Amino acid sequence: MSIDPKQLDAIGRPIIVASHMRSGTHLTIDLLRRHFPETNPRLRPLETLHHLYVDMDSFNPGHHNPMTTDEALRLLTRNPRPIIKTHTLPDVTLCKPEFRPIVERIYERAQIISVVRDGRSVMLSLKRFEMPWNAEARGSFSEFMRTQWEGLVRPAYWDKHVRAWQRSSNSFTIRYDHIVKDTKDALQDLGAFLSMTPSMREPLLPPAMKNRYDGWFRRLLGNTETTNIPGERPGPGEPRTWQEQFSPEDCAFFDHLAGELLIELGYEPDHEWASAQTGADAQ
């Protein structure tokens, strides 16, 4: 069924929050909704927290929670600056054919916020997140980091994903740790990029969900401040940082595939980190 051009014209100026998985996607979405009213729609009866933004990945074949074009257009036209989430690459051909006009219009009008996080921390968080459903994530960390995602070993895909969104036109890159550690400055940067004034409502950061049960409880109470999806928390004695987890071989492996990007993003001054002893081998 064809889409009425008037429906496409009704889409405001979307904000795409693009990130590799486990990089602060929902924190950024919730930060925007908390401080920029133009981005924050009201939930209607029977809607869930996932209706507060549009998951563009649900337009793609095989997605676990597919969306219809009617539903997508309804969510995209309910407020002036709809937020769109995506973890996939910026490629209009990835979506199902019926969504092509919508995705093309989104890219035509959108401002893009590329949220980045230290890829080494991403690898650790990703393994914990995937453990409940991915057998590969239940093995050793070194083995997991060498598994493939979308045809590339994971550090190489992280590098490809971040660079692809940074190259997109009308794209602004912000670091996850900058949002967390200097929220006021991050909000000012986002406001300048989006040409909107943040409310600076205290506390500046939205509350984090403690676990999945906390999310269900918040939905029952009608609390829409947070949409984040908690991962598995490390157990007693398990590594909590990449420095505790990475072996010297892991450091060399990651640096070979994505070390230049770590330097470009400001996470390392040079490649020396990869030759330093880390984790259990540190003295």
Which percent bin holds the helix content?
Answer: 25-40%
Rg over CA atoms: 19 Å
Structural class of the secondary elements?
alpha/beta
Low-confidence stretches: 279-283
> What does the oligomeric state look like here?
single chain
**Tertiary shape:** globular
* Neighbour order of strands in the largest sheet: 2-3-1-4-7
Mean pLDDT: 92
- For the record, give the distance between the C-alpha atoms at the N and C termini, rounded to a whole number: 65 Å
Biggest sheet, in brief?
5 strands, parallel
By DSSP (H or I, 4+ residues per run), the number of helices equals 12
Count the E strands. Answer: 7
Beta-strand portion reads 5-15%
Helix-strand topology string? HEHEHEHEHHEEHEHHHHH
Relevant terms:
disordered C terminus, 12 helices, 7 strands, 283 residues
